[in-house]
# Entry
Amino acid sequence: MQKYTTFANKRIMQLYKIETGNFMADGGALFGVVPKVIWEKRYPCNDQNYCNLSMRCLLIKTEGRVILIDTGVGNKQSEQFFSYQHLNGDDSLHQSFANVEVGLHEVTDVVLTHLHFDHCGGAVEKDEKGVLKATFPNAKYWAAQSQWDNYLSSNVREGSVYFKENMMPIFESGNLELIDENTELCPGIELRIFNGHTKGQVIPFIKYKNTTIVYTGDLIPVMASLPTAWVSAYDTDPITSMEEKTAFLSEAADNNYTLFFEHDLYNECCTLLKTERGIKSKESFKLEEIDNYL
Ligand SMILES: [Zn+2]
# Structure
């Protein structure tokens, strides 16, 4: 696995993608009100209408910190539950860490964009005795206070995507850090709060060379979700999602940001282009190719 380094402002930063496997979601749910005849041209599905989605995390080494963004679904729920999610692919959190030769104990910070199972499930694992423990024993775990409140008393929509065992061991260990406003995690990495998909989704903005890489989480789950109206039926407040996406994409296009997709199996990163018909993707590429597009 290649490494990436920047010396801007004397800051050295290395980025690694951490693939944790894939799951499937109904395409109609993923693209909300958009008709299938339109979305299927932009994102493939199987004959049961399922779209295959990655759970692609991002690992950042910078200035003595080792920061992981999201953790994938993990491995501690029942086989029946995982079969409902149609888990597939050869990647796992552990194998991806081994591939980049980083130990789980080296991670200093885990940023959880939000606490839906496909984002935070890997934060807690069972040890040999079946006891739940933090996967990253030396890390602080970051989430938004409003997301935590939502998790503790979930609404009727989100009750089925939050699991007690995914987060309570972290809370009980005293390593949960909650933010209630946009926060600088460390020089070069800002955590910003969005509320359309779920209350208190944390989106990391990472300054890298002459771009800003944005880990788009469920703000823009796949590249096909760029148009304003392409909002997932899972979003709890779709009007807010559209407003947040419009403002974000305008800022991102004006400042040549690079988007990093968590859930797009086919596109890892893209740059943006402002056109008369809205903001579109300009170039799609893998993280390891990013220096060719800066
Ligand atoms: Zn989500």
